[in-house]
Design a protein that fits this description.
The chain is mainly α and 148 residues long. It is built from 6 helices and no strands. α5 packs antiparallel against α6. The longest helix is centred in the last third of the chain and has 37 residues.
Length: 148
C-alpha cells in the first residue's frame, strides 16, 4: 500500500483539478458577486474575466500534467520521455500565466500580481531545468537497459 503522503498528494492533485474546473466555470458569477463589494472588480469585470479565465485554463493544464506525471510515480516508472514532455509543457504554461498576469498590470498594479508573475516565471524556469534533468536521466536509463 502506498504511504499516506502519496495518497494525500494524489487526493490534493485530484481536488485541485476538479475544483479548478468549477472555479473556471463559475468565474462570471463569482467576479460579478465580488464586484458588489469591490469596485475594482465591478469596473473591470470583462478584463478580469478574460485574465482569470486564461490563467485558470493554463493552471488546470499544469495540474493535468502533474496528475499524468504522478501516475508514473505510482507505477514506479517515472523516468520516461512522457514526463520530460510534461515538464516542458508545464514550463510553457507557467510562462503563459506570467505573461497573462503581466497583462493585468495594465488594469491595476498590486504587489500580489507582481509576486504571482515572479512565482510563475520561477516555476517555468524550474520546470525547464527539471525537464533537462529528466531527459538525461531517461537517456541514462535507456542506455543502462540496453546494456543489461
Amino acid at each position: 500500500m502506498k504511504d499516506k503522503l502519496t495518497l494525500f498528494t494524489r487526493f490534493l492533485l485530484d481536488f485541485m483539478y476538479f475544483s479548478g474546473m468549477v472555479v473556471i466555470v463559475t468565474l462570471p458569477f463569482s467576479i460579478r458577486f465580488y464586484g458588489k463589494y469591490n469596485t475594482y472588480f465591478a469596473n473591470n469585470y470583462y478584463s478580469l474575466l478574460v485574465v482569470f479565465f486564461l490563467a485558470g485554463i493554463f493552471a488546470l493544464l499544469i495540474i493535468h500534467e502533474l496528475r499524468k506525471m504522478f501516475r508514473t510515480v505510482l507505477n514506479d516508472d517515472c523516468f520516461i520521455r512522457e514526463n520530460v514532455k510534461s515538464l516542458e509543457k508545464m514550463s510553457i504554461y507557467s510562462f503563459f500565466i506570467a505573461v497573462i498576469m503581466a497583462c493585468r498590470l495594465f488594469i491595476y498594479i498590486t504587489p500580489a500580481v507582481l509576486v504571482v508573475i515572479l512565482v510563475f516565471v520561477i516555476a517555468g524556469l524550474f520546470s525547464k531545468v527539471l525537464a533537462q534533468v529528466f531527459d538525461k536521466a531517461v537517456t541514462y536509463k535507456l542506455e543502462n537497459d540496453l546494456t543489461i
